[in-house]
């Protein structure tokens, strides 16, 4: 057993989960007689081998960072936001609509406006379960899941029936947006071999810092964390749990909405019929969990996930290994993160006197009042910590 | 087989938590048929020692003998098999089950997969009769009183064949009358040949119930005494290591203008049943008004209504003439009300946050701790360090999580946060529950200081001693109504006890005579 301190353990557990995840992938490949070495090396080449591959990997990481941040903000307030997909989709179609409606506005007006409207669309979508939970105690899990479907089909309906015909090229896709509304930057695309990388990446980096600042340095963040950790004590201290829950969901929805905005204004430049909920919503949850909700963690795990996604395609073409292996690796990593307790057993943690003492006392008092406190969620959600 | 004088003998038990000795060479010898008290402050190592005896923790060194035979208690199941059972402070009962169902849980007697309920019920009834527990085996746990639930716990371990019963702070949740009954039950159990280890820090109970008492302090055995030969003062001195004042001297109250005015207040509890049923009272500046009563007679709802945590259904609450009926919590706080809540883990602290953040929980949104919504962690730290120093909170540093502090220091942190705000009215509920003598003394001094500074103090407590020692006036709550108002100089614990049990004041006065 290794003796490590708490912060080191916090880093080691996800790292080991990642390694184990790749190992499981390798074992599966061996069973089906593929060469793991060959597969993983072509995965790395596919994701990082050329400047355009790196560009695509960073491009893919951008929306994941947004949705992961969205998830972590909500879960800091004790709110399980599974509706990231729907919120992102709302952001996507909202921003595209504005971009198509005013194609000739100058960039410095149109681009911020389109981004803002997308963020707002995400915020409104997220506010619905927030308000329902705050005022009626409705389970946000059910509401957000169902809203994913509502937004999915509503977006198609809006595009096909409400959006002016002139905006569309066909029944299933809109026109491309004008350059005034695009997040693409020619110098950036050139730098990364003409890939679809775009200015959304910078927005994501700003969001990482902004979320860290809001959660750690502002009274709003203090209230969100406090309500998430102990709603009773927060109410006692005069915080409004209703307001805090709604605010955290709005913030979460803004971030998820921006995830959709960068897909629309950056990656695809248009909106087209979606047949299933956006995968960035669900991958974002995984990224947040793997990054344990911290800004740096989300950045790194966002990049890792997009390496897997982009590299997975390279693996398929380069080594003939099916893309589905990537999903096995991803699922295994998440599995190992989820059983972090078991992985944590590998390390003997250096504990302080106080924590030891408490640990012994806890065995006695664990059934007391503390059972009412949602501290069991502490480690689960990828919350900002 | 050697017959030993002791049913349990723990020899030189040491439990080392990477460098910190929670138990250091502790000896504990329990004779068959005795009530053996284990006395010590919070964190002295009582719980660790009992966790070792009940198989939850493994000792670093030392040995345990039962009836002279060395035993190794590696897990709770072995402890069960050896006949060691524990009545936990917080009951391990399923509310929706009957007493019988709770007792047989895990060891259900069955024939072909069908639970033999009748048989079990009969056995439990027999056990209950034999030890005078008077528990109805068919009653649902949610429908019986706390005292009865505790007896169900006792029955549970008796049913599993316990010979040595460990009682962990059993009186913390009981009324004075229930405490007397429990002591009778314990005496009955030892008369039937059982042995009892009683964990407590209440000296009065040790004097009443125990035969011998082992005192531990900071992980070491201080000694074992015959209770009959030791005075309470001697025991207290052994426990804390220095002499303790039980009663804090206080000057006569300088009563000022009314601060809190409560008129015809009615409050419903969560299920919509009235809990506070039309009460009137006033708290003046410079006095401590004690609210006595058995747990569950409307105290919690009253406090929640006063502090804005619960809606008032009718009546009014005024503070210095301002109507604050159903005002939001923050407005009440801003009007100069401090609140030390009954449940410090649920309401008082955010356990996963740092001590510094917890100390700022009521003032984080004000200058200088934040400016325009941005927290100033430098000031938050400075504020925390000042409170830690002034209120003597023992912690390694201000960044330690509140949940890692000891119970006494958690309470000191809340007291520090609430008293430091210089409020007009201080509402204090169960301020010393579960604390040791040293911490209790400290908190009592603080409350009297506040009174002497001209603050109005409303004190709710289930501890009669606390109410009697601190209050200038006492109101007794029974069934959501004020059963009577008395003065501590002229009343007795018996009179208070009767009022708490619902007698009218005249009847109580009569009976006491």
Automatic annotation (TrEMBL), chain A:
It comes from the Bacteria. GO terms for cellular component: plasma membrane. Keywords: Cell membrane, Membrane, Transmembrane, Transmembrane helix. It holds the Pfam family BPD_transp_2. Residues 356-385 are annotated as: Disordered. Signal peptide: none annotated. This is ABC superfamily ATP binding cassette transporter, membrane protein. It comes from Lapidilactobacillus concavus DSM 17758. The lineage of its organism: Bacteria, Bacillati, Bacillota, Bacilli, Lactobacillales.
TrEMBL record, chain B:
It comes from Lapidilactobacillus concavus DSM 17758. PROSITE patterns: ABC_TRANSPORTER_1, ABC_TRANSPORTER_2. It is a peripheral membrane protein. Pfam families: ABC_tran. Residues 8-243, 260-504 form the ABC transporter domain. InterPro entries: AAA+_ATPase, ABC_carbohydrate_import_ATPase, ABC_transporter-like_ATP-bd, ABC_transporter-like_CS, P-loop_NTPase. CDD domains: ABC_Carb_Monos_I, ABC_Carb_Monos_II. The lineage of its organism: Bacteria, Bacillati, Bacillota, Bacilli, Lactobacillales. One of its GO terms (cellular component) is plasma membrane. Belongs to the ABC transporter superfamily. Keywords: ATP-binding, Cell membrane, Membrane, Nucleotide-binding, Repeat, Translocase, Transport. GO terms for molecular function: ATP binding; ATP hydrolysis activity. Gene3D superfamilies: P-loop containing nucleotide triphosphate hydrolases. This is ABC transporter, ATP-binding protein. It is found in: Cell membrane.
């Amino acid at each position: 057993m290794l003796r490590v301190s708490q912060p080191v353990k916090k880093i080691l557990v996800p790292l080991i989960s990642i390694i184990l995840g790749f190992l499981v992938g390798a074992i599966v490949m061996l069973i089906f007689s593929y060469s793991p070495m060959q597969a993983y090396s072509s995965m790395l080449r596919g994701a990082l081998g050329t400047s355009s591959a790196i560009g695509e990997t960073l491009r893919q990481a951008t929306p994941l960072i947004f949705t992961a941040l969205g998830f972590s903000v909500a879960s800091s307030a004790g709110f399980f936001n599974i509706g990231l997909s729907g919120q992102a989709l709302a952001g996507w179609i909202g921003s595209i609509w504005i971009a198509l409606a005013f194609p000739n506005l100058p960039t410095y007006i149109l681009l911020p406006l389109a981004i803002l409207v997308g963020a707002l669309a995400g915020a409104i979508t997220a506010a619905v379960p927030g308000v329902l939970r705050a005022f009626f105690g409705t389970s946000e899990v059910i509401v957000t899941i169902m809203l994913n479907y509502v937004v999915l089909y509503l977006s198609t309906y809006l595009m096909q029936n409400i959006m002016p015909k002139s905006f569309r090229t066909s029944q299933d896709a809109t026109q491309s947006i004008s350059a005034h509304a695009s997040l693409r930057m020619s110098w950036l695309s050139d730098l990364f071999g003409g890939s679809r990388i775009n200015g959304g990446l910078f927005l994501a980096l700003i969001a990482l810092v902004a979320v860290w600042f809001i959660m750690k340095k502002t009274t709003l963040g203090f209230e969100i964390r406090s309500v998430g950790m102990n709603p009773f004590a927060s109410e006692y201290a005069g915080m409004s749990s209703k307001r805090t829950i709604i605010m955290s969901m709005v913030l979460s929805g803004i971030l998820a909405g921006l995830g959709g905005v960068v897909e629309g204004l950056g990656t695809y430049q248009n909106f087209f019929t979606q047949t299933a909920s956006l995968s960035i919503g669900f991958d974002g949850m995984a990224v947040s969990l793997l990054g344990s909700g911290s800004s740096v963690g989300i950045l790194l795990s966002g990049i890792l996930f997009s390496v897997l996604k982009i590299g997975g395609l390279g693996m398929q073409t380069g080594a003939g290994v099916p893309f589905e292996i990537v999903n096995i690796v991803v699922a295994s990593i998440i599995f190992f993160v989820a059983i972090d307790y078991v992985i944590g057993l590998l390390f003997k943690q250096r504990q302080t006197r106080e924590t030891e003492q408490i640990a012994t006392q806890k065995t006695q008092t664990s059934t007391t009042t503390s059972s009412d406190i949602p501290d069991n969620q502490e480690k689960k959600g990828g919350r900002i910590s | 087989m050697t017959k030993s004088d002791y049913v349990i003998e723990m020899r030189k038990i040491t439990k080392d938590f990477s460098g910190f000795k929670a138990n250091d060479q502790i000896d504990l010898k329990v004779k068959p048929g005795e009530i053996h008290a284990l006395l010590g402050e919070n964190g002295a190592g009582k719980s660790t020692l009992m966790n070792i005896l009940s198989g939850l923790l493994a000792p670093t060194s030392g040995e345990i003998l039962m009836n002279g035979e060395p035993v190794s208690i590696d897990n709770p199941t072995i402890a069960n098999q050896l006949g060691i059972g524990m009545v936990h402070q917080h009951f391990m009962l399923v509310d929706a089950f009957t007493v019988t169902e709770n007792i047989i849980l895990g060891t259900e007697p069955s024939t072909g997969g069908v639970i033999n309920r009748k048989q079990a019920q009969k056995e439990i009834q027999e056990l209950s009769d034999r030890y005078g527990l008077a528990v109805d085996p068919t009653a649902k746990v949610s429908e019986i009183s706390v005292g009865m639930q505790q007896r169900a716990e006792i029955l549970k371990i008796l049913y599993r064949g316990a010979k040595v019963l460990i009682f962990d702070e059993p009186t913390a949740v009981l009324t004075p009358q229930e405490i007397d009954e429990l002591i009778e039950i314990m005496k009955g159990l030892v008369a039937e040949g059982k042995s009892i280890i009683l964990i407590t820090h209440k000296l009065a109970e040790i004097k009443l119930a125990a035969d011998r008492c082992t005192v531990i302090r900071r992980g070491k055995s201080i000694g074992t005494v015959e209770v009959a030969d030791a005075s309470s003062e001697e025991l207290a001195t052994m426990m804390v290591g220095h002499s303790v004042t039980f009663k804090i001297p206080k000057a006569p109250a300088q009563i000022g203008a009314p601060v809190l005015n409560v008129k015809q207040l009615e409050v419903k509890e969560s299920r919509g049943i009235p809990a506070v049923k039309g009460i009137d009272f006033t708290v003046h500046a410079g006095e401590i008004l004690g609210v006595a009563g058995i747990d569950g007679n409307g105290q919690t709802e009253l406090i929640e209504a006063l502090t804005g945590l619960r809606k008032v259904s009718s009546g009014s609450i005024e503070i210095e003439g301002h109507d604050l009926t159903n005002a939001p919590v923050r407005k009440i706080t801003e009007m100069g009300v401090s609140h030390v809540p009954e449940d410090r883990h649920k309401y008082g602290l955010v356990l996963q946050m740092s001590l510094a953040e917890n100390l700022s929980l009521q003032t984080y949104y004000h200058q200088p701790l934040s400016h325009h919504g941005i927290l100033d962690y430098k000031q938050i730290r400075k504020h925390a360090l000042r409170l830690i120093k002034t209120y003597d909170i023992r912690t390694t540093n201000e960044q330690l999580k509140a949940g890692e502090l000891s119970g006494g220091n958690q309470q000191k942190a809340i007291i520090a946060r609430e008293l430091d705000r210089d409020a007009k009215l201080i509402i204090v509920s169960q301020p010393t529950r579960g604390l040791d003598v040293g911490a209790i003394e400290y908190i009592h001094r603080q409350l009297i200081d506040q009174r002497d500074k001209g603050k109005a103090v409303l004190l709710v407590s289930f501890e009669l001693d606390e109410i009697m020692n601190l209050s200038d006036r006492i109101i007794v709550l029974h069934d959501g109504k004020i059963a009577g108002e008395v003065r501590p100089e002229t009343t007795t614990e018996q009179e208070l006890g009767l009022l708490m049990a619902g007698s009218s004041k005249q009847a109580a006065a009569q009976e006491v005579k």
